[in-house]
């Protein structure tokens, strides 16, 4: 993942403490027992990227972090914590596999969201059509495996509402998402239908800015940051495992609830 300059990053103990505070006592104990792994990730993200041994051990640690800590952090049957707007992180960090000058430049007037796979209605959606759907918002925390987290406000359409509208086969296993920047990811159907999974069109009550995924981003507070695709251009429902940009490089697929 892209290495970022210091200002956006929370220090390692701060992220561990802030995440731990959100957990109830048994989960907090479990989290703190494994928190050293997060420290390990923070240290290892500073590894030389041309050193394949270091990269591999970083990926192994990230995967271990996901496997052991996610159960405490992300419970599918519960709602993720929400926050008052006064707690929003300003400015909200930007992160991608490229730096800011790589942010895709998308013309909203021409934009169409492709919908495919196991759905009844395969018509493509314009932004005007998407904005007609019922709108809701949430203030939640985005957690990146690189060792930072931040609180933001996203607004949009509850994803389960959208899936209903397109007649998705909700007994299918996966929803795959493709992005304008060649990023892609996929999620399990229970997460797609989770009450806090939003197909977002806005950030902080403004049209979603380019750096946060204009014009469309799927936001799930029950999944790690890299499972939250920006610049979504295609959504498909499938029983064939679609993988993902980081997932295919060894990151734990579930990465959340
Ligand atoms: N299309 C796309 N989506 C993406 C990424 C990306 O590189 N491209 N990076 C992911 C990662 S690793 C993180 S942590 C979050 C960062 O979101 P932010 O820029 O809103 O902070 O976006 C995720 N979604
Ligand atoms: Mo991330």
UniProtKB/TrEMBL annotation:
Database matches in InterPro entries: OxRdtase_Mopterin-bd_dom, OxRdtase_Mopterin-bd_sf
Pfam families documented for this protein: Oxidored_molyb
Domain Oxidoreductase molybdopterin-binding: residue ranges: 102-246
Signal sequence extent: none
Protein name per its UniProtKB record: Sulfite oxidase
Organism from which the protein derives: Pseudomonas batumici
Lineage: Bacteria, Pseudomonadati, Pseudomonadota, Gammaproteobacteria, Pseudomonadales
């Amino acid at each position: 993942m892209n290495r970022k300059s210091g200002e956006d990053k929370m220090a390692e103990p701060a992220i561990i403490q802030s995440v731990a505070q959100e957990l109830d006592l048994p989960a907090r104990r479990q989290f703190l027992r494994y928190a050293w792994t997060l420290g390990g990730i923070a240290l290892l993200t500073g590894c030389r990227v041309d050193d394949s041994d270091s990269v591999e051990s970083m990926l192994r640690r990230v995967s271990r972090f996901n496997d052991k800590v996610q159960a405490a952090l992300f419970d599918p049957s519960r709602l993720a914590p929400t926050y008052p707007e006064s707690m929003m992180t300003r400015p909200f960090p930007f992160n991608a596999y490229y730096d800011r000058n790589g942010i895709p430049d998308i013309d909203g007037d021409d934009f169409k969201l492709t919908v495919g796979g196991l759905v009844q209605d395969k018509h493509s959606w314009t932004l005007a059509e998407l904005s007609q759907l019922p709108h809701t918002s949430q203030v939640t925390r985005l957690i990146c495996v690189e060792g930072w987290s931040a609180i933001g406000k996203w607004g949009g359409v509850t994803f389960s509402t959208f899936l209903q509208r397109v007649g998705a086969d909700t007994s299918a296993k996966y929803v795959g998402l493709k992005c304008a920047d060649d990023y892609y990811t996929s999620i399990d159907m229970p997460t797609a239908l989770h009450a806090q999974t939003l197909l977002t069109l806005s950030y902080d009550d403004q049209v979603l800015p380019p750096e946060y995924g204009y014009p469309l981003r799927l936001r799930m507070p029950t999944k790690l940051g890299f499972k939250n695709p920006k610049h979504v251009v295609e959504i498909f429902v499938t029983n064939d495992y679609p993988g993902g940009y980081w997932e295919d490089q060894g990151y734990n697929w579930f990465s959340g609830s």
